[in-house]
């Protein structure tokens, strides 16, 4: 009987310990649940966006309806898309309309902002040619790639995230930057895509972090230019 009383607490303790380790290895790791469920899609890049659940790419699709040239590129050209989600556009519109309210101007929407400026900004998220992380991995400093329109240079760098307790043992990611023509990194604005390498019949899609504000800091100034009073006199 004494033996049973001694072994039972030990067995219980060991069981709890095993459950604790199991829980830590799964729930406490911020990368445990990372999974790119769609490695390939049997359709074009545009069709992939259209096939996603409501609330994901509605804003991007609305914008593309106003930009037929870029929309056609996503359907027919070989491209790499760094796809902004709804929240990316919502952040940009929030800051724009906050400034417009302060200036006493009426609010705008994605349906009413300047289409020429919109075309310039959206084009930067579409890279000419099909690229995957295999193209970025050998380049420790990343690569300058050209946008589908206006030949604007954007910078892409491969990142291997760290899982809990394991350096560089987590998911693959890509840093996507607007260098603004500068070689100095501190002048850049960078966002990250942690869902990468979604293959379509005409390209690759990387989905941007929800905390990114569409336009890399230029959206408000481009959509709400402040007139120089001196130039008007």
Total helices: the number is 9
Element string (H = helix, E = strand)? HHHHEHHEHEEEEEHH
Mean pLDDT: 83
CATH topology of the largest domain: FAS1 domain
Q: What is the number of independent domains?
A: 2
CATH architecture annotation of the largest domain: Roll
What does this structure look like?
The chain is α+β, with helices and mostly antiparallel strands. It folds into 2 domains: 1-29; 45-232, Roll (FAS1 domain), CATH 2.30.180. Helix content is 38%, strand content 19%. The protein is built from 9 helices and 7 strands; from the N terminus they run ααααβααβαβββββαα. Strands 2-1-7-6-5-4-3 form a 7-stranded mixed sheet, covered by helices on one side. A hairpin with a 6-residue loop joins β3 and β4 (153-160). The longest helix is centred in the N-terminal third of the chain and has 25 residues, at 2-26. It is globular and about 50 Å long. The relative contact order is 0.16. Residues 1-36, 164-169 and 228-233 have low confidence and may be disordered. This is Fasciclin domain-containing protein.
């Amino acid at each position: 009987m004494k033996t049973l009383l001694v072994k039972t607490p030990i067995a219980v303790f060991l069981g709890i310990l095993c459950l604790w380790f199991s829980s830590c290895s799964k729930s406490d790791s911020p990368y445990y649940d990372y999974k790119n469920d769609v490695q390939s899609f049997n359709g074009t890049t545009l069709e992939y966006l259209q096939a996603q659940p409501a609330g994901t790419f509605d804003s991007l699709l609305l914008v593309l309806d106003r930009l037929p040239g870029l929309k056609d590129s996503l359907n027919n050209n070989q491209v790499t898309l760094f796809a902004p989600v709804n929240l990316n556009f919502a952040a940009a519109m929030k800051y724009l309309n906050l400034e417009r309210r302060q200036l006493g101007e009426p609010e705008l929407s994605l349906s009413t902002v300047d289409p020429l400026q919109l075309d310039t900004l959206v084009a930067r998220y579409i890279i000419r040619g099909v690229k995957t992380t295999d193209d970025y991995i050998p380049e420790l400093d990343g690569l300058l790639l050209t946008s589908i329109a206006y030949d604007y240079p954007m910078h892409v760098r491969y990142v291997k995230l760290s899982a809990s307790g394991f350096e560089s043992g987590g998911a693959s990611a890509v840093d996507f930057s607007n260098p603004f023509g500068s070689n100095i990194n501190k002048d850049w604005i960078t966002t990250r895509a942690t869902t990468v390498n979604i293959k379509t019949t005409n390209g690759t899609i990387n989905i941007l972090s929800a905390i990114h504000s569409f336009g890399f800091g230029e959206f408000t100034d481009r959509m709400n230019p402040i007139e120089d009073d001196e130039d008007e006199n």
